[in-house]
DNA sequence: AGTAAACACATTGTTGACAATCTGTTCAGG
DNA sequence: CCTGAACAGATTGTCAACAATGTGTTTACT
């Protein structure tokens, strides 16, 4: 019923850790059409196949996935909650686009929230959760040795995600995972720096150590610094990217 | 076109400050049906006319407001983003219901976020914004003298809202105003304590003073304490409320 | 030639009918 | 009497057509 023959192959491993998968194996017949295409549109946006700032046509999207406009609208509504899409009445939906200043605001907010998550995690984390975190660190080391950059990205998302989970604060989780994380992933994906992971993983290790020692204050501090590093990196790339876009536009205006 | 003859009279003054109104006077023909009933359902939930935890029937809601299920579903989707409603696929929507622990989590998150807002506001607030805040304090004093409890509530919402605005961080604003505030208002409305405002207004004054003196650290501290007071208050009322509900249920089960 | 109103087109908002799924009940079996 | 499966009813998900609104173009006027 759903067109799967597009170039947009599933690739839902990328979000497998963000949303708890119910079934153990392939969950072909997912709960609802809107949810199914939601994931696909998400990855399209995050990868930049739907560029930041571009207009989204409901009908075109619906036809692309072989469904009607109803579920498409629902998916867009959810994407709006995830900050990946901006909608205005009677005008339509656009892919979100951040100015440099807004990106900094976003990172500042993230920094505060994940700092809070660290502090909570340090006092509430269970031995199992801690073990999972340490497993993850080992995997990241292994991936680093192999030069597997994709898993490094994935692992980084997982690292932050697990700490947020360990915080045990449902509203914090919802705010970060349901609200901010997708937008962060989008800019991280499109503005990532391949040199970062080496240092980032070392920082991860120190954060986990602090949490293991139940030192919430330190863990929070380290996390905030860690995120600040990421912010600087992404900011530079975004400035570069926007400069290119501006240059292209002026060229187009001349001709 | 829209049934206005229900007992649910408009009463949208209550949210007039949360959403910037475009037109200067009566905006009868609002942008979209979904947005119109959204406000009405919001107030129904906040006032407890739709009780916490109760099931929401799409068809019934649609008929109540004389519209079809389409816009109703959209409104429910928005309410889900505002945390006032919980939806699960193929099952339906329920009015959100917090346990005591979740309420504490919510307040903890709010505390951190509004602390951040204070710190930002202290460094970024404009003279105009500061003047508006001080006007508001004066109004609250006047309302207190008259014993106008309704305006006190409204003024409190506005107080926090204006500080959040003054923070200048768009994502912080969206997270608090678009995400958490409605749920907070719901529990505040249903669990409010009439004695609080006297002290609360004094706390407000000190926070504004700290912001005016550009002392972000102090403003943040005072705000977090202020919110902690509110939390304690609401928590006690919620425990009481839930005890009553539990008692009623056991009675019902016996008969 | 530049500006503003009027038009046509495209797109979104809304509706009612139909399909798929869940929930609660009934009925059979142990 | 209790447990479990089949059934019926209700409710949500999806669809396609229609209405309302915004956007861009054309055209008339200064």
From TrEMBL, chains A, B:
Domain HTH gntR-type residues, every copy: 31-98
Pfam families: FCD, GntR
Transcription regulation in keyword set: yes
InterPro entries: GntR_C, TF_FadR/GntR_C, Tscrpt_reg_HTH_GntR, WH-like_DNA-bd_sf, WH_DNA-bd_sf
SMART domains: FCD (SM00895), HTH_GNTR (SM00345)
The entry's keywords: DNA-binding, Transcription, Transcription regulation
GO terms for MF: DNA binding; DNA-binding transcription factor activity
Cited CDD domains: WHTH_GntR
UniProt xrefs under SUPFAM superfamilies: GntR ligand-binding domain-like, Winged helix' DNA-binding domain
Protein's name in the database: Carbon starvation induced regulator
Phylogenetic placement of the source organism: Bacteria, Pseudomonadati, Pseudomonadota, Gammaproteobacteria, Alteromonadales
Gene: csiR
């Amino acid at each position: 019923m759903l067109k799967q023959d597009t170039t947009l192959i599933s690739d839902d491993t990328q979000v497998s850790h963000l949303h708890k998968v119910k079934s153990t194996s392939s969950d072909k017949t997912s709960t609802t059409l809107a949810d199914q295409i939601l994931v696909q549109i998400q990855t399209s946006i995050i990868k930049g196949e739907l560029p930041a700032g571009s207009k989204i046509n409901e009908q075109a999207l619906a036809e692309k996935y072989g469904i009607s406009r109803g579920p498409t609208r629902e998916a867009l509504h959810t994407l709006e909650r995830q900050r990946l899409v901006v909608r205005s009445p009677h005008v339509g939906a656009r892919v979100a686009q951040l100015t440099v200043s807004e990106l900094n605001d976003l990172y500042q907010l993230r920094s505060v929230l994940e700092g809070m998550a660290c502090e909570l995690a340090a006092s509430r984390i269970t031995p199992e959760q801690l073990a999972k975190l340490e497993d993850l660190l080992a995997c990241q080391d292994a991936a680093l040795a192999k030069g597997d950059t994709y898993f490094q990205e994935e692992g980084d998302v997982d690292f932050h995600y697990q700490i947020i989970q360990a915080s045990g604060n449902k509203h914090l989780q919802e705010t970060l995972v349901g609200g901010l994380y997708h937008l962060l992933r989008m800019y991280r994906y499109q503005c990532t720096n391949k040199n970062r992971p080496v240092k980032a993983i070392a920082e991860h290790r120190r954060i986990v150590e602090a949490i293991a020692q139940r030192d919430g204050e330190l863990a929070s501090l380290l996390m905030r610094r860690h995120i600040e590093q990421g912010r600087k990196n992404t900011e530079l790339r975004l400035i570069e990217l926007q400069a290119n876009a501006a240059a292209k536009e002026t060229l187009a205006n001349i001709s």
